[in-house]
Specification:
By secondary structure, the chain is of the alpha+beta class. It is built from nine helices and 15 strands.
């Protein structure tokens, strides 16, 4: 019985092509041999074995990753990624290599999927800007000027990163692949490891003559002035997105987005809850008892509201549609006026006498509250269930 994979197979020799053969030449050689040794055409057992070798050779040489392994002296179809070669293989470092090399081979190197060269042109990052606004501005909207410091496209090289009249050059160290590969012998067999090329930093190209303005990055940092339109009804913490106004990417890549984060300054009168506004107004005890009129300055104008006679502390007046406009849709929130009834703390003799006389007419003498059956007695009976 034939012993397969005893040595690294010559896949180029199987197809009868040279190592510099193009993809088209490999394909034509495969089709020619496949027609000659196909089992339907040639039933000879030796022809069937030859047909298997032809298919294996085409499988390897038509795959760039596997072909690179062959060019490095390995055999991608050998057990354990094995094949022949001296100890350590081409570029090897002995019969055993570090654990990281083995992991690279299976998960990060050519045997686990070559990544190829890194693109020089990449999308830019998003940027965020804090914008402080007054309540009136967030309520009704405003066009606010902003200043941003971001990377923008280099106008000298238009993002290419090269000086005028020059171009990128293919990296001679990695041949434009962006990574350097080596075949090494390990206790698992022969493995292929790949690492980014240190000469071109994994790009596969170098910049012999960088742009003098951006030093090859394709972008420069600058300060720009923009105007952002703030819609009516925005709230504190909301973000407004300005498409492609963020950072331009390396190599002149598409700019990211700019997010303007709204921060609403505290108002000296109103507090805001959603689209509703709240304020507190202090009224004298006499005004709460007799009733009065208050003039409230809203976000739009001044409003006169009635305080009914006998208003109690903690009462609330509601002014409909005097709050903040709804961000989405029509209409507005409400304005709530919370009333604090102020009790006088200092009375002169005449004021105290009049207040006592008033209390007598209502049967609310202070002395009576402490008597049996008075206020405290009624409270005690209420707790004891005698009320």
């Amino acid at each position: 019985m034939r012993t397969r994979n005893a040595v690294a197979r010559d896949y180029y020799g199987i197809l009868g092509v040279g190592r510099e053969a193009s993809d088209d030449e490999i394909k034509r050689a495969y089709r020619k041999l496949a027609r000659q040794f196909h089992p339907d055409v040639n039933p000879d057992p030796e022809a069937q074995e030859k047909f298997k070798d032809i298919n294996a050779a085409y499988e390897v040489l038509s795959d760039d990753r596997k072909r690179q392994i062959v060019d490095l002296g390995g055999d991608p179809l050998a057990p354990g990624g094995g094949g022949a070669g001296g100890p350590g293989g081409p570029g090897g470092a002995g019969p055993f290599v570090g654990f990281q090399d083995i992991m690279d081979a299976f998960f990060g190197g050519a045997a686990g999927g070559s990544r190829g060269p890194r693109p020089r042109t990449r999308p830019g990052a998003d940027a965020i800007l804090r914008l402080e606004l007054d309540l009136h501005e967030t309520a009704f909207g405003v066009e606010a000027p902003i200043t941003v410091d971001t990377a923008v496209l280099c106008t000298t090289c238009s993002g290419a990163g090269t000086a005028a009249g020059t171009h990128l050059a293919t990296c001679e160290a990695c041949g434009g692949r962006g990574e350097v590969q080596s075949v090494q012998r390990t206790f698992l067999g022969q493995v292929v490891s790949a690492r980014p090329c240190t000469v071109c930093q994994g790009y596969g190209t170098t910049i012999p003559h960088p742009c003098p303005t951006c030093a090859g990055d394709g972008r420069v940092r600058t300060r720009r002035s923009l105007t952002v339109k703030i819609p009516a009804g925005v709230e504190d913490g909301m973000r407004i997105r300005l498409a492609q106004q963020g950072e331009v990417g390396p190599g002149g890549g598409t700019a990211g987005d700019l997010y303007v984060e709204i921060h609403e300054r505290p108002h000296d009168v109103y507090s805001r809850k959603g689209d509703d506004l709240h304020c507190r107004v202090t009224v004298p005890m006499t005004a709460a008892a007799l009733g009065t009129r208050l003039t409230i300055k809203t976000l739009d104008s001044e409003e006169t509201v009635d305080v009914k006679a006998g208003t109690q502390p903690g009462s609330t007046l509601r002014l409909r549609a005097r709050g903040v406009p709804h961000l989405r849709g029509t209409g507005r929130g409400d304005l709530y006026v919370h009333l604090d009834v102020r009790t006088p703390t200092k009375l002169d003799a005449d004021q105290e006498r009049m207040l006592r006389d008033f209390a007598k007419t209502r049967g609310e003498e202070v002395a009576e509250l402490t008597k049996q059956g008075g206020f405290f007695s009624r409270m005690r009976d209420a707790f004891n269930g005698h009320a």
